[in-house]
Amino acid sequence: MQRADAVRNRRLLMDAATAEFAENGMDVSITRIATRAGVGKGTVFRHFDTKEQLLAEIFSDRLEELVAAGERLSGADDPGAALFEFMTVGTEIQARDRSFCQAAAALSRSEATVRTSRERLADVAQILVTRAQEAGAVRDDITGLDIVLLLSAASQAVLSISEEAPGLWQRYLSMIFDGLRPGAAGPLPVPAPTRAQFTG
């Protein structure tokens, strides 16, 4: 019975923390998360040593959500459309979660779950880019890591007015799509990031 309660409490904490981080960013307090979950503050620390560890698990879940979308799209008949849909899914995840970009910048890359998920995301993005390039749908000088880093661009561009203009990120994502197509290609001033730079 105790084990069942522990599993239930962990799920309640994950759900509450996911909602709080998404709505309010990563500065939300452990007390607020515990209150939303309907458990005591001590219960949080029986499951997670630190708030960073809790955030890392949630951030990893978000990355895996995007990895799953990429894997689903990797066999699509239209590789260009598949890449753009992958980017749309990734941008939408970030647009609805205020903590996503904060977590990407702040979390220690030594967190094993985050590092593994980042590696998997880079791999699936490269598969999608390579297929789109082979189909002539996108310019040939971009990499999967370029795409991963671009995912934040549209959602961050409208962060300050996201409540007043929900969905505005789609406008800027369309502009990014246009810049990825071969006809728009101009020389890029610096090389793409390396895998070591991305994963730390």
Please provide a written account of the structure:
- It is a single chain.
- This protein is mostly helical.
- The protein folds into two domains: 1-48, Orthogonal Bundle (Arc Repressor Mutant, subunit A), CATH 1.10.10.60; 50-199, Orthogonal Bundle (Tetracycline Repressor, domain 2), CATH 1.10.357.
- It is 70% helix and 0% strand.
- The chain is built from ten helices and no strands.
- It has helices at residues 2-24, 30-37, 41-47, 51-73, 79-95, 100-106, 112-134, 144-157, 169-180, 195-199.
- Helix 1 (2-24) packs across helix 2 (30-37), helix 5 (79-95) packs antiparallel against helix 9 and helix 8 runs antiparallel to helix 9.
- The model has no long low-confidence stretch (mean pLDDT 87).
For the structure shown, list the relevant keywords:
mainly alpha; Arc Repressor Mutant, subunit A; 2 domains; elongated
Give a quick precis of the structure:
Keywords: DNA-binding, Transcription, Transcription regulation. The chain is mostly helical and 200 residues long.
State the CATH topology of the largest domain.
Tetracycline Repressor, domain 2
- Residue stretches low in confidence (pLDDT < 50, at least 5 long) are none
CATH class of the largest domain: Mainly Alpha
- Content of β-strand: under 5%
Q: Spell out the CATH superfamily of the largest domain.
A: Tetracycline Repressor, domain 2
Provide the structure class.
Answer: mainly alpha
